[in-house]
Amino acid sequence: MACCVVLMVLQQMSGISAILFSDSGVVMDIFDPYSPLSAPWACIVVCGTSLPAIFLCLVCADRLGRRALLLGSLGGMAICSILISAGLFYGPNSMVMAAVFLCYFVFNMGAGVVPWYYISEVIPSYSLGAATVLCCSLYWIMSIATGLMVPLIENSTPQWLFVVFGSFMLFGFFVVMLFVPETVDCPVADVVKKHSGNIHLVVKLRSSTGAAGNSTGGTSRSLLDLLRR
Fold first, then answer.
1. Cβ atoms within 10 A of the Cβ of 176, count?
2. What are 143-196's pLDDT values in tens digits?
3. What SS3 class is residue 63?
4. Is the four-CA dihedral 27, 32, 38, 39 of positive or negative sign?
5. Which of 16, 159, 166, 181 is surrounded by the fewest CB atoms within 10 Å?
6. Please, what is the end-to-end C-alpha distance for the chain in angstroms?
C-alpha cells in the first residue's frame, strides 16, 4: 500500500503540471511574446507524444517489468529536469523544448501509467476498492497542491522550478529501486505474502563469492535482477 501511495505522489511531483499549464507553464514562457500562437500548439504537440508513449508502455510492461519502466521513467525525467533547468538558466530555448518533449514522453512510458494498474497487482481484492479510493484521493490532493505551488515558485525563482521536480524524481528513482517489488508473473496473493508487513528492501544483490571466471556473468545477472526484482 505504501508503494502505491508513493507512486501516486511522485506522479504529481514530476513537474508534468508545470509543463501542461499553458497559461503559466514553461512552454508559454519560452514562446511568448515572440510568437503567441506557438505556445498553445506546442502544448498540443507535447500532449500528443503521450499516445505512442502509452502504447510502448503497455507493450513493454510485461517484457521489461514494472520496475524497469518506473526506473527508466523516473531516471529519464530527472535528467530532463536538469536539462530544462540548465536551458532556463543559460539557454538555448531549443534545448528546453527538446527536454520538455522527452520529459513528457518518458513520463508516459512509466510513471504516468504504471501506478494506475500497479495498485491492482499488489492489493488483494477484498481491500482493492478502499485502496483505490485512497490513492486516487491523494493523487488529486497532490494535484491541487502542485497547482498552487508551481505559480509561487515561477513568480519568485522560475529557473529553480525543475530543480525541485528533478530532486523528487531522483528521490523516487531510489525509492523504486529499493522498495517497490516487481509484479510481473506474480499473483497478488504471492506479492502480499512476500512483501506485506513492515517496509523492507526488495533488492538483494548476489554474493560476490564464486569462481573468478564467472564474475562478469554474475555481475550482469545481478544488474538484471536489480531491475526485475
1. 27
2. 888 878 877 777 777 678 788 888 989 998 998 888 888 888 888 888 877 777
3. helix
4. positive
5. 159
6. 17
